[in-house]
Amino acid sequence: MILKNGLIYNDSLLRNGVILILEGVIKTVTYNVTKETLQLIKNRNTDGIEIDCGNRTVIPGIIDIHSHLRDMEQSEKETFLTGTLAAAFSGITTVFTMPNTKPPAVSANQVKGWMKKAQNKIHVDVGFIAGIPRDFDFEEITSIIDLGVVGFKIYPLNSLNGIDWTDHLNIQKLLNISSKFQLPIFVHPDWPLNAEEKEKIFKKGVEEKLPFLKLHNKLYPTYMEAKYVNFILENYYKVVVDLDLIPKDYPIIHFCHISCRDSYSLIKKALSTNKSLNITFEITPHHLLLNDSIQIENPNYAKVLPPLRDKKHAFYLFQELKQGNVKLLGTDHAPHTSEEKEKSFLDAPSGFPGFESYPLIVLDQVFNNEISLESFVKITSENPAMTFKLDNKGFIKEGYDADLIIVDRGVDYPIESKKFKSKAKFSPFQNYQTSVHIWKVFLRGIEVNIDESNPMGNIIKGVI
Question: Is the predicted pLDDT of residue 464 greater than 70, yes or no?
Answer without folding.
Answer: no
